Amino acid sequence: EAKQQGKAGFVRYVDGMGEPVLAHMQLGGELRRALDNDEFRVVYQPIVRLDGRRVIGVEALVRWHHPTRGVVGPGEFIPAAERTGLIVPLGRLVLRETCRQAAAWLAEFGPDALKEAGLNVSARQLHDPDFVDDVSAVLAESGLPCERLVLEVTESAVLRGQQVSRALYALDSMGIRLALDDFGTGESSLSLLRAFPAAIVKLDKSFVDGIEIDDGQPAAADARKAVARAVIQLAHALGLDTVAEGIESPEQVAALRELGYTLGQGFHLAEPMSADEISRLLAAQQDQDRFPVRGKAVP
Ligand code: C2E
Ligand code: MG
Ligand code: MG
Ligand code: MG
């Protein structure tokens, strides 16, 4: 039976009752089992200075090491984890692992090597009345200073009313930095920035895609550039940091730098990697005093 599951994937493997709802229930059961069996792992994608390519932070991204399907990305199970509420224990696991790891990097490489470690938090977690206390307890237990933790939330998660808003303000007042993830894709990005204690804005990949193109489709590229420009102007005016997401080419780095972006994340700079690989990268960076993984250092 396990083999069939491996071949078929989650939606089809509910034999004879192929309703999506049932498949989701099945996936919920699988997720519960996976939590019990310790099948989730955290990888870290570097956040990099665009002028010289130093790693200044990481974003934690969860992976499911399924016994038959191999490594499964979060796009395939986070929605089900949210629906079933399993995102709460799963998120706690990612939080604990990230804080523990970030504290270990701090101890090994000192305060200047990695400024911060971020992780994604879903609306369902922010609705959990224990969330703020959990974060506080995990930080205390790990020894990671509050200001080195970044919690990434999306615009739609933030727009979920009083309870979420209270949680966000409580986290902010603890000194934790909040990042607005996938910024620009929501419906009320700009007004949200006033109503929410963000420290960081992450420009969504959709505005980075094609930003380097000067001919071919000038209109489309100009529109993206206009959003990217408006976002950084707004961020500067409000005193927020920015990170450009999904950078896949040196031309995009150049276009973003021209607009004033100083931090970025993307496959061109560095892919998500294991904690050990991050450690090697930080060690190499300490030796060479520059980012050694990929791409040429830009003076
Ligand atoms: P996100 O928070 O916006 O994370 C960035 C995603 O973009 C990651 O996908 C990353 O691997 C991918 N990415 C980074 N650079 C590039 C690039 O240059 N090109 C392209 N095409 N993609 C790039 P991933 O790991 O599959 O995660 C997808 C989403 O799943 C995340 O988007 C986040 O919303 C969610 N997620 C991941 N881990 C967690 C978690 O622990 N908890 C929660 N609640 N959500 C998570
Ligand atoms: Mg994120
Ligand atoms: Mg993002
Ligand atoms: Mg994204």
TrEMBL record:
Domain of life the protein comes from: Bacteria
Native source organism of the sequence: Paractinoplanes bogorensis
Keyword Mitochondrion listed: no
Domain EAL as annotated: residue spans: 24-286
Full-protein interval shown: 473 to 771 of 771
Record keyword Transcription regulation present: no
The entry's keywords: Membrane, Transmembrane, Transmembrane helix
Protein known as: EAL domain-containing protein
